[in-house]
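Entry 14. Structure prediction run on the chain below.
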Amino acid sequence: MFSFQYCPNRTSRVLEVEIDPLQRGPGMWDANCKIYEQSDGRRLLLGPTLALRDIPALSEQECLDEAEIRIADEIENDRWFKL
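Output returned:
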């Protein structure tokens, strides 16, 4: 499990994104992603789990890098959940 903080461009919110990568075969990965926000001292899950499929990568780190790019795109374009 890997996590990072993400600040969407049009808000001052700080989101925590968790990525759980899974290697399906040589050079091919999937990743299940969850996004959280701290509110009133509690950690709230925002939206459903995002399943990223068919990530071409030679290593887990490459998978995580590509997943971060895809996640940012999903958030910025309101495709995963509405900010």
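The first strand starts at residue 2 and ends at 6.
Filed with the rest of this week's runs.
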